[in-house]
């Protein structure tokens, strides 16, 4: 008989994420590990910082293998349509309701070129299954509700850049990412 998998602390998660090279980590394994990760309300709330103009990216933990962030979204905030430049992604909703849209190239085009079209949309709330994208996935996240949204994201390896896509043109632009700094909120 299989025993249920136990929940993991952040310390246990860090150890598990370092057990194999991140280059050979399967998306399913990241989703399984992220699904078992339990963070305290105090930790998430201490990293929850909102801004009016756009969603915020607030760092919790970063190692050579992964990074863990808390993203905060006001109603109407949305990300660009983007890939993760080879990083895996797992997302859990802490508070609110997330809209996750997946995109695919309009024609048989190599990754990193446009245009793209939406292929699926799903919604997630607290306690529901995780959402995310594999190394070659393209998606957009949005808060389409009337309430604030807080999401917890794991990127493996850490996400330092991404490619932004368009649904109307061939525009595909590589962008460097950074975390939201406290000074940015003033």
Describe this structure in words.
By secondary structure, this protein is mainly beta. The protein has a single domain (10-177), classed as Jelly Rolls, CATH 2.60.120.10. Helices cover 13% and strands 35% of the residues. It is built from 3 helices and 10 strands; from the N terminus they run αααββββββββββ. The protein has helices at residues 10-17, 27-36, 41-46; strands spanning 56-62, 67-73, 81-83, 88-95, 98-105, 116-124, 138-142, 149-156, 161-165, 172-176. Strands 6-5-7-3-9-10 form a 6-stranded antiparallel β-sheet, with no helix packed on it. It has a 4-stranded antiparallel β-sheet with strand order 1-2-8-4. The chain is globular and about 45 Å long. Mean pLDDT is 89; it is low at 181-186.
What's the total number of strands?
10
- Rg from alpha-carbon coordinates: 16 Å
How far the N terminus sits from the C terminus, by CA atoms, comes to 55 Å
What name is given to the CATH topology?
A: Jelly Rolls
Give the SSE string. HHHEEEEEEEEEE
Largest sheet: 6 strands, antiparallel
């Amino acid at each position: 008989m299989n025993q249920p998998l136990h929940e993991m602390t952040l310390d246990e998660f860090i150890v598990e994420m370092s057990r194999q090279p991140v280059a050979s980590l399967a998306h399913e394994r990241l989703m399984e590990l992220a699904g078992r990760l339990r963070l305290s309300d105090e930790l998430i709330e201490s990293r929850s910082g909102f801004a009016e103009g756009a969603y915020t990216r607030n760092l919790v933990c970063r190692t050579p293998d992964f990074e863990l962030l808390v993203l905060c979204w006001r109603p109407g905030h949305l990300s660009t349509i983007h890939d993760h430049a080879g990083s895996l992604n797992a997302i859990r909703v802490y508070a609110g309701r997330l809209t996750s849209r997946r995109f695919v190239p309009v024609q048989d085009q190599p990754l990193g070129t446009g245009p793209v079209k939406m292929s699926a949309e799903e919604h997630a709330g607290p306690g529901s299954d995780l959402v995310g994208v594999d190394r070659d996935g393209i998606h957009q996240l949005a808060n389409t509700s009337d309430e604030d949204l807080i999401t917890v994201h794991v990127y493996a390896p850490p996400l330092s850049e991404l490619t932004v896509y368009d649904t109307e043109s061939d525009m595909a632009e590589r962008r460097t990412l950074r975390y939201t700094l406290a000074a940015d909120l003033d």
